[in-house]
Amino acid sequence: MTTSRTKKALFLGLALLVVLGIAGALLAWKYPWLDPDSPSREQVKRAHELQERILSFDSHITVPLAFGSEGNEADKDGDDQFDLAKAGRGRLSGAALTVFGWPELWNGPNAPHRPTPGFVEEARHQQEMRYRIITGIARDFPHQVGIAYTPDDFRRLAGEGKFALFISMLNAYPLGDDLDQLDKWAARGMRMFGFSYVGNNDWADSSRPLPFFNDSPDALDGLSPIGRQAVGRLNDLGVIIDVSQMSSKALEQVVALSRAPVVASHSAVRALVDIPRNLSDRELQLIKNSGGVVQIVGFSSYLRPLSQPSRDKLEALRARFGLQPLPNLAMALMPGDPAIAIWPEKKFGEYAKALYGILDEEPKASTRDLGDAIDYAVKKIGIDHVGISSDFNDGGGLEDWKNVGDNRNVTAELIRRGYSDADIAKLWAGNFLRVWGDVQGRAAPVATP
What we know:
Layout: H1 2-30, H2 41-53, E1 57-62, H3 84-89, E2 94-100, H4 103-106, H5 119-140, E3 145-147, H6 151-159, E4 163-170, H7 180-187, E5 190-194, H8 225-237, E6 240-242, H9 248-257, E7 262-267, H10 281-289, E8 293-297, H11 300-303, H12 308-320, H13 330-333, H14 345-361, H15 367-381, E9 386-389, H16 407-416, H17 421-441
Parallel strand pairs: 1-2, 2-4, 3-4, 4-5, 5-6, 6-7, 7-8, 8-9
Helix pairs in contact: 2-16, 12-14, 15-16
């Protein structure tokens, strides 16, 4: 009888714990301020009020090629992570929209293609399409949007209640070996230029070389001769140099050659997730020493290491495709093993599809993880050299920062961590605007023949 009562008591105790756990989870979901590790109700209220008062800038958002078309109108609250409706809801003052082209990856992991003779032309076509989309937003919604060519333009547009569009460019590959393309794009409004994306190009080594495209790490030993020339040309043009996605050697060489501050427009820290795509302590310091700023990115797998269940799935996948066990975390996030260089395209496509499928199922990081990365960078290089970016529409997005409409959640997390209003204003826009002004102030006329 005693045993029966004991069992009954244990059962009731376990049932009560389950009920309390479910109730706690529901309450934390509906009332997040009840979670001791989440912002309080008062901190959330402060975040809403602060977001109304400060300038905020997202330094890296990709423009989908269908953006602005029917069903994807710029002023409607659509499926993409950025549009004017969401920007208004999140009180985002402006953003760097990226003129970007990369056909192999645009076709996706299901249908990869090795470079072809028409690659540069197709990539330039994509750049042109995105440029027309960006300028088209300003043309079609003049009472809501304007293009910012200077920091003063940005502040003026914000004062007028308009969203400020900042034109950036990512990946030198589509420019071929034509340095004069930089002058052309600067004249068209480009104000930040990033040399690298996935895969090496003729200007710089990438932090993520792709063996399937016959890449190898540090193939150029950093920058090529045209890459070195580009640093001086960009300085002369008053265009910010973006060092995100560069190899460590290329980044070091850019900082050594540049007479103006540099920016990492969408990066995280290697101390928390040890992958070459993230910045080492030395790289953080180099950017600070240039007078620049590191924009910490809300990209889940750069902020928090993969969970063990995902790693187990990846190990099983690698075994199925004849690859060695994971040598490092970088190989878990992309098909980067040297052996892939000899694979037929079909095999590569099947592996890449399965790999990205596993990564898509990984639970998202949160603004807490973003806050950890911001804290780390601030402690290493100071509050004046750190900012915020999302990488929306190209893999960015967190559990509680799904789109630009959720920006207040980032602010609330910063308040919870004890950042002052003035420091949050620096992180959201002030530091980037200062660096932008410094870069433009160091420009010089480009010599003409």
